[in-house]
């Protein structure tokens, strides 16, 4: 995957109001359940991309070149947190910033949220590999680069290998 363009302050100033708002809103959260691993593979990537343009707080992931979100999940709020609302904000910001979004099964995205990011990442790789085995040509085209990027990121950032 290609590196993600990181807007400068000057480029940020050229974004229209809606685009700025959509990105700013997505930089927050999820606050309620403190799922650090979910943040690492979503909002932290947005913060890493935006840190040249503005001050960002919280967890920052400067390396990963994609965002992980769930395909679907339960309706409504979950542990005082509306996951679908959060995901939609992240998806919109990723669109504006041209960051690839990879969708994984809900159970992969949510069930392992309390483990450290390297372990969570290995679970994401395993889940995507399983989908690759059962998917069609489009699925293969879509997932193979994501698997390669996740493996690269885990090795570079955490020194974690995902070899079989």
Q: What does the radius of gyration come to?
A: 15 Å
Q: Structurally, how many domains make up the residues?
A: 1
User: What is the terminal-to-terminal distance?
Assistant: 22 Å
- The helix/strand class is mainly alpha
Strand percent estimate: under 5%
Q: What is the helix fraction of residues, given as a range? A: 40-55%
Principal-axes shape call: globular
The beta-strand count equals 2
> Mean pLDDT, as a whole number?
89
Please tell me about this protein's structure.
With about 160 residues, the chain is mainly α. It has one domain (about 10-160). It has eight helices and two strands; from the N terminus they run ααααβαβααα. It has helices spanning about 10-15, 15-25, 35-40, 45-50, 85-95, 105-110, 115-135, 135-160, and strands spanning about 65-70, 100-105. The longest helix has 22 residues, at about 135-160. The relative contact order is 0.16.
List keywords for this structure.
164 residues, 8 helices, mainly alpha, two-stranded parallel ribbon
Topology of this structure?
Elements: H1 9-14, H2 17-26, H3 36-40, H4 43-50, E1 67-70, H5 83-97, E2 101-104, H6 106-111, H7 117-134, H8 137-158
Parallel strand pairs: 1-2
In short:
With 164 residues, the protein is mainly alpha-helical. It is built from eight helices and two strands, in the order ααααβαβααα. The chain has one domain.
């Amino acid at each position: 995957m290609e590196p993600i363009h990181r807007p400068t302050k000057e480029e940020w100033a050229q974004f229209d109001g809606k685009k700025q708002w959509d990105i700013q809103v997505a930089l927050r959260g999820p606050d309620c359940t403190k799922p650090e691993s979910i943040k690492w593979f979503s909002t932290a990537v947005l913060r890493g991309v935006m840190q040249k343009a503005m001050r960002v707080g919280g967890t920052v992931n400067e390396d990963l070149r994609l965002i992980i979100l769930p395909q679907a999940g339960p309706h409504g709020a979950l542990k005082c947190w509306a996951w679908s609302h959060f995901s939609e904000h992240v998806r919109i910001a990723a669109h504006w910033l041209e960051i690839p979004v990879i969708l994984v099964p809900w159970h992969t995205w949510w069930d392992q949220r309390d483990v450290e990011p390297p372990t969570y990442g290995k679970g994401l790789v395993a889940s995507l590999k399983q989908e690759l085995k059962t998917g069609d040509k489009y699925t293969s085209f879509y997932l193979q680069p994501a698997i390669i990027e996740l493996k690269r990121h885990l090795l570079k950032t955490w020194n974690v290998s995902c070899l079989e």
